[in-house]
Amino acid sequence: MANGLVIAANASLGDSIFLIVTFILLMWLVKHFAWGPVTKMMDKRAQKISDDLDGAAESRSKAEQMAAQRQSELKNSKSEAIQIVNTAKENGEKSRQEIVTAAQTEAAQLKSKAKVEAEQVKTDALNGAREDVGQIAVNIAEALIKKDLNADDQKELIDAYIKGLTNADETR
């Protein structure tokens, strides 16, 4: 039996050495042919994930900046709209005031012109009435003395009347 143990120990030692050598050879083959490509693949995958995370963070940062910019532009648009409305109101008020002032000025000018025209019509009417009264007086005088009076005759008649009045005053 001791012999069998030695053989079994020899066989066991030979098997162990074979297994160790095979294991080392297998580890070397795995490291050389499989571990390197798998490690490279895992490194690439880790790098891609890292780049994707960095890209996502950068995209989120850009999105936040764009949202802030849009918000700012919206506020500016609101203030510009308010300013445009206020400017339009001011311009409308100025236009209204200018129209009212122009209308008042035009009304005053028309009133003044109408007043001047009324005075002219009044003056023309009075002059016409004087001429008509003078003509009526001449017609009456002609009828009384049955003679046509011209301007010279009228002057003589007036002078004679004045002279008669002067003589009448002297005799008193």
TrEMBL record:
CDD domains: ATP-synt_Fo_b. It is found in: Cell membrane; Endomembrane system. It comes from the Bacteria. Residues 52-80 are annotated as: Disordered. Keywords: ATP synthesis, Cell membrane, CF(0), Hydrogen ion transport, Ion transport, Membrane, Transmembrane, Transmembrane helix, Transport. Residues 52-63 have a biased composition (Basic and acidic residues). It is a single-pass membrane protein. The chain crosses the membrane at residues 16-35. InterPro entries: ATP_synth_B-like_membr_sf (IPR028987), ATP_synth_b/b'su_bac/chlpt (IPR002146), ATP_synth_F0_bsu_bac (IPR005864), ATP_synthase_B_chain (IPR050059). Pfam families: ATP-synt_B (PF00430). F-type ATPases have 2 components, F(1) - the catalytic core - and F(0) - the membrane proton channel. F(1) has five subunits: alpha(3), beta(3), gamma(1), delta(1), epsilon(1). F(0) has three main subunits: a(1), b(2) and c(10-14). The alpha and beta chains form an alternating ring which encloses part of the gamma chain. F(1) is attached to F(0) by a central stalk formed by the gamma and epsilon chains, while a peripheral stalk is formed by the delta and b chains. Belongs to the ATPase B chain family. Component of the F(0) channel, it forms part of the peripheral stalk, linking F(1) to F(0). PANTHER family: ATP SYNTHASE SUBUNIT B (PTHR33445:SF1), ATP SYNTHASE SUBUNIT B', CHLOROPLASTIC (PTHR33445). This is ATP synthase subunit b. The gene is atpF.
